[in-house]
Write the structure tokens for this entry.
Amino acid sequence: MSNALLLHEPEPDSREYLERNLRDDGFEVVGTARSREALELIERARPDLVVAAGVELCTRVRAGEPGRTWDRNVPVIVVARPGADPVERARAFERGADDVLQRPVAYLELVARIRAVLRRTAPGGDQVLDAGEILVDRRTRRALVRGTPVQLSSREFELAAKLASDPHRVWTKGELLRDVWGFRADGLTRTVDSHASRLRRKLCLAADDRFVVNVWGVGYRLLE
């Protein structure tokens, strides 16, 4: 099956050139010049990857909007303006870009970057996350503690899956906001705290269970 791409490119000739060549290379491509239309297409078409002209579209995708249901975690490659310095490129990564290129874009490099990001973000063998007494199955969206199923909300499940992907690592609140919620604002860290507290209560089936451990001033890890 070919991968679906959303191409956001305001310049008509460049957009036509990229669309034509990406289709020749086996991708399904939908192109648009406008950010608002791009957001609507991301919500409706559910592309596998977005190529965005500038960081604004990436920022809006990651932030989300009330009532909108696009995937805030869709991979995004940002094409920065000519002459963008390292600070600008770093800020694009901070705002959620999976990769950053600078104009003028060499077509073969763009294709290589698209394929690399798709490989990196594609669902792989880690669909069942075994963290000892806790098992998280992404395929069936089930979480079990010592074989006992635990009922989790959608966001609690995503938080559990993130923590279980590296259960002894301390995940910062900023990382969890970015990867689970798609947010960038540190002022929303209470969102992480409240969900982590509820997840802990649901996973701790025995009085001496120590799951979803709060590392003071940093973040959370799944196991003690």
